[in-house]
Amino acid sequence: MGRCRNCHTHFWGNPHFCPSCKTDLWYEEYNDENWDFRALQEEGNRLIAKGNYEKAAVVLKLALDQVMYKHAQHSMHRLKDAVSDFVWLYSNEAADISDDRITDVLDYFEEECFGQPDKYRENLMQMRRDASRRLPQAQYREKQGLDFPHLRSYWEFAPVSQVTDQNSVSGYEPDILEAKHLLLTESFLYLYLNFSRVMKYLQAQDSLNTQMVTDELLPLLHPDLDMEKNGENDTAKLMENVLCGFLEDGFEELAALYLNHFDEAAVTKVKKRCEQIAGEDVTSTAMLEMAVFAPLLASEKNGKKIYEAMVPAVTEILAQMNQLHQVLSETLDEKERKNLQHTISILCAEYCGMYGVGEYLLGLAAQTDQELYLDAMDQAAGNGITLAAEEMMRSYFYGRRGCEVQPGYAKFYSRLVSLRHVASSISDAVEGVEGLEMLVPGAEA
After folding, report:
1. Greatest extent of the chain over all pairs of C-alpha atoms, in Å
2. Alpha-carbon distance 363 to 376, whole Å?
3. Helix (H, G, I), strand (E, B) or coil at 22
């Protein structure tokens, strides 16, 4: 016999709700300080093994709540097990779990996967596939607006092909592979993708200094920004200065935007800080502004507003490239010509990166649509996004995403990364295969 903690009514058996006051008895049983995340995860797994699925769902909800909202300590392995069990209950319709709840759990696990071994992202992909069998996604592409950002009606920026084609004035065709290490634009993509982890890090600090940003914050974003392991490069140093600048003033507004809370005053403040920081670092204000806002263009909720705010900066970049082509056509000194060509290529690479950021984020949003996912990642890789190139490498090197094992294709994407000298473990693995011939995907044999 049991007794309700709320109304003190006695009951027989193991009912879910109190027969008298309808209190959730299972919730009350496990919502206790004696039950930490690990204990709840193990209990949920035990209940599934016994076939007590509805009660297991309650227990796993409590376990995941502790991690997601109370920041309980946890290992990635146990978190993966808890999420996997939760997805199993949902996908097999074994328990009452809402679509929104499973989406939030998978999104949270995806955030936790960044910077972790590849196996966890593989687990995530499989869990998303399992959940998609039940999620109401028959029309999800239309419902969620999963189109390439530049296909939306308000997008009027010049296409990449127009910018990269040989210029009729100077005769010089920009080479985006001339940009070494990460692009500034893709660096802000990684900041956007890892923003929850960045916030957790910052909230845990009593104070901050430049060394902490260099040694601890930048490596959270991407290995190529880890100057201690991979050496200093221009983008890493610039990101250090930019992040320090925003942490001094304007970070609250940047955080609001990166957490998908659009506010015109925040946009104005962030643009102003970009101008100030760029002036201190002798960096193009327009290029920095484009890099900061690029990850937000793919937002179904705020993309159009961000687009409108970005138009002046992007227009200025296009004007700068056109002007540089004109100056190049009138310059005879070979050294000066090389410098002009390099500047044009860097501006072009960052512009392509803006497209690539949107393509990469589309790919993430469309992970249950294999064809759209691969198409988006392929285009993002071609526009300079390292994570996209790495995804395509894994797909062909290990035979994932419906791709046949084709190491020669993997080497093509590896070259996109290695020629830019970007630190990448999967690229190192592919390049380390002796005698591997590079094949271009889609080219005729």
Report:
1. 95
2. 5
3. coil
Q: Which residue has the tokens 């102003």?
A: 272
The CA-based angle 298-193-432, given to 5 degrees, is: 110
Of 405, 406, 429, 401, which is closest to residue 417 (Cα–Cα)? Answer: 429
Convert the pLDDT of each residue in 45-68 to its tens digit: 999 999 999 889 999 999 999 999
Instruction: Report the DSSP beta bridge partners of residue 423.
Output: none
Residue 218 token pair: 């930048």
CB 165 within 8 A of CB 177: no
Side-chain-facing half-sphere of 303: CA atoms under 13 Å: 23
The burial class, CB within 10 Å (0-12 / 13-18 / 19+), for 389 is: buried
Q: Global pTM?
A: 0.67
Residues comprising the chain, all counted: 445
Contact between 23 and 7 under an 8 Å Cβ cutoff? The reply is yes
On the CB side of 415, how many CA atoms lie within 13 Å of its CA?
Answer: 12
Element at 140 (helix H, strand E): helix 140-144
What would the pLDDT profile of 134-168 be if each residue is shown by its tens digit? 765 434 555 555 677 777 778 888 888 888 776 77
Tokens representing 35 are 């039950």
Going by C-alpha positions, the residue among 386, 385, 387, 362 that lies closest to residue 375 is: 362
Task: Tell me the pLDDT tens digit for each residue of 68-95.
Answer: 988 888 999 999 999 999 999 998 888 8
- CB atoms under 10 Å from CB of 444, counted, come to 4
Q: How far apart are CA 154 and CA 31, in angstroms?
A: 49
Other CB atoms within 10 Å distance of the CB of residue 169: 14
